[in-house]
Design a protein that fits this description.
With 279 residues, the protein is α+β, with helices and mostly antiparallel strands. Helix content is 26%, strand content 29%. It starts with a helix and ends with a helix. It binds calcium ion (CA) (2 copies).
Length: 279
């Protein structure tokens, strides 16, 4: 349970409780004190309003955490902060070395607690991607920086898998992954597959050939009980070129389902009690 995320919401309930108690014991009309029923009705009305406000506030404070990774090389690494204010992680042709690690930083330049461990070698990097990326992810686009789209890490037929493991993931949360890849000036199939193995396995694919606008996003994925998700880049369906790519990744840390369930549960109880008292 991520108490710090909901505490701003909960804290705004206390002033309402205190004010209600003050109103009860310091009523200007002491000859007509509130009955217990009236008091409870007022309390429930105030609490309902406060909880609605708390849920709204929590929706803001618990907004998704983002992590950006630029894959590639040739001196085209993303600089931080970018034009949009995001901090980037750079996975290049040389860094980390095989079996080495990156401690991932959030887009807000904070430690994510997530470690990337490079476990299966790629075939290298190139800088033959688009300089005019225009996708649904603003951070990937050339209006932000053309360096994300230009470079990629790739695999080829003779070495068909590039792998890394993400560890330190929160088992109470889920994660979505959005990928971009681009290889310009080609006429064959560069379909690239991205497999994620956590509590369950999923594979999504993206055609990198001459791509400037498409990204692919997984569903919400849960890590293993140990807090890991393994990633594999491979050749996608129909790939007749023998080359597959990853140029950029956005990791979206989905707000904790348990938090939402607790708040929704509390709200529904209050609404039910209020309805009963209004009969
Ligand atoms: Ca780059
Ligand atoms: Ca890149």
């Amino acid at each position: 349970m991520q108490f710090h995320a909901i505490s701003p919401g909960i804290s705004c309930i206390w002033p309402n409780l205190i004010q209600i108690r003050k109103n009860r014991f310091h009523s200007p009309n002491k000859t007509q004190p509130q009955t217990n029923t009236q008091y409870m009705k007022t309390l429930i009305q105030k609490l309902s309003a406060a909880l609605v406000a708390a849920v709204a506030l929590t929706a803001t404070t618990a907004s998704a955490q983002l992590i950006y990774i630029d894959f590639g090389g040739g001196g085209n690494q993303m600089t931080s902060p970018d034009t949009l204010g995001n901090t980037w992680n750079n996975f290049t042709e040389t860094t980390p070395a095989l079996n080495g690690t990156l401690s991932l930083i959030t887009s807000g330049n904070a430690s994510s607690g997530i470690t990337l461990t490079y476990t299966d070698a790629h075939s290298g990097a190139n800088s033959s991607g688009t300089t005019a990326a225009n996708t649904s992810v603003a951070a990937f686009n050339s209006t932000n920086s053309n360096k994300l789209g230009m470079d990629s890490i790739f695999v080829e037929t003779a070495n068909p898998a590039f792998k890394f493991t993400l560890s330190g993931l929160n088992t109470g949360k889920t994660y979505t992954f959005t990928m971009f890849a681009s290889r310009t000036g080609v006429s064959n199939n560069r379909n690239s597959s991205y497999t994620f193995a956590g509590l369950a396995n999923t594979t999504v694919e993206l055609q990198a050939a001459n791509n400037t606008s498409n990204v692919v996003t997984t569903g919400a994925l849960a890590p293993t009980a140990g807090g890991n998700i393994d990633f594999t880049l491979g050749l996608g369906t129909g790939n007749d070129s023998g080359f597959a790519y990853i140029g950029g990744m956005q990791i979206n840390v989905v707000p904790e389902p348990a938090t939402w369930a607790l708040l929704a549960g509390g709200l529904s109880v209050l609404v039910a009690v209020r309805r009963r008292n209004n009969r």
